[in-house]
Write a structure and sequence with these properties.
CATH superfamily: Uracil-DNA glycosylase-like domain
Number of domains: 1
CATH class: Alpha Beta
Number of strands: 7
Bound molecules: iron/sulfur cluster
CATH topology: Uracil-DNA Glycosylase, subunit E
Radius of gyration: 17 Å
Distance between the termini: 30 Å
Shape: globular
Structural class: alpha/beta
Strand order of the largest sheet: 2-4-3-5-7
Length: 246
């Protein structure tokens, strides 16, 4: 386990933004047993405004549908491949992402890459990565509900046209953004496959995981029930299901 946990470590020890809950949870991954949910921001309207992923991206690049347009340097639409079987959804761009125009490229993003690379998956060949909102919230705050709703048309298009079999929700904010639940504790639901009945999400396997910035803050903790150890279990389960896909 020690070597496995080290796969997730970075070595500069800097503090990062809080993307998750502060407590730990020893609950094991429970595949295919998650609660049925119907209250996504993607529901009830499943009509897609755009005829292609490229059309959605083009619209997002000049979008002013919410106040986050005012402070952005770049619109951060996505990274990865457009026919990926796995889509990772985070909450929104941070400083590095805003500057580079790509999601998950700071310290947390590097850790996310290491987690998936530990099971042979990477953004150049296997993953599509995006966020609930495409523009950076000021002072790295979480996206607000009106912003998530305004941006949901782009996320809908991404899910429809990428058509992933597996959707990974990175952190509590992404889970809240998709499920529209205010009382989500990522420590309670991470590692479980969630089944959604929304037309756009039905049939896809959806798993919440810890946000990598949360794992960075708990890097010191090597206990078997630490967030890092739980992340290791979760990525193994994700890979197991990925390998089972036709
Ligand atoms: S966050 Fe989304 S809805 Fe808001 S301005 Fe950016 S692209 Fe448009």
């Amino acid at each position: 386990m020690e070597n496995q946990l080290n796969l997730f470590s970075l070595d500069d020890g800097q503090e990062t933004r809080d993307h998750g809950q502060q407590t730990t949870d020893s609950k094991q991954a429970r595949p295919d047993k998650g609660p049925a949910e119907t209250n996504s921001i993607l529901n009830p309207s499943v009509s897609i405004l755009y005829n292609s992923l490229e059309e959605a991206k083009s619209a997002a690049m000049s979008c002013k549908k919410c106040k986050l347009c005012e402070g952005r340097t770049n619109v951060v639409f996505s990274d990865g491949i457009e026919n990926a079987k796995i889509m990772i959804i985070g909450e929104g761009p941070g400083e590095n992402e805003d500057l580079q125009g790509l999601p998950f490229v700071g310290r947390a993003g590097k850790l996310l890459d290491k987690i998936f690379e530990s099971v042979g998956l990477n953004r150049k060949e296997h993953l599509y990565i995006c966020n609930i909102v495409k523009c950076r919230p000021p002072n790295n705050r979480a996206p607000e509900e009106d912003e998530a709703n305004a941006c949901s048309e782009y996320l809908k298009a991404q899910i429809k046209y990428v058509n992933p079999k597996i959707i990974i929700l990175a952190g509590a904010v992404a889970v809240k953004g998709i499920l529209k639940k205010k009382d989500v504790k990522i420590t309670k639901i991470r590692g479980e496959w969630i089944e959604l009945e929304d037309l756009l999400l039905a049939g896809r396997k959806i798993m919440p995981i810890f946000h990598p910035s949360y794992l960075l803050r708990h890097e010191w903790n090597k206990a078997p029930d630490s967030p890092k150890a739980m992340m290791w279990k979760d990525i193994q389960e994700i890979k197991r299901v990925y390998d089972s896909l036709a």
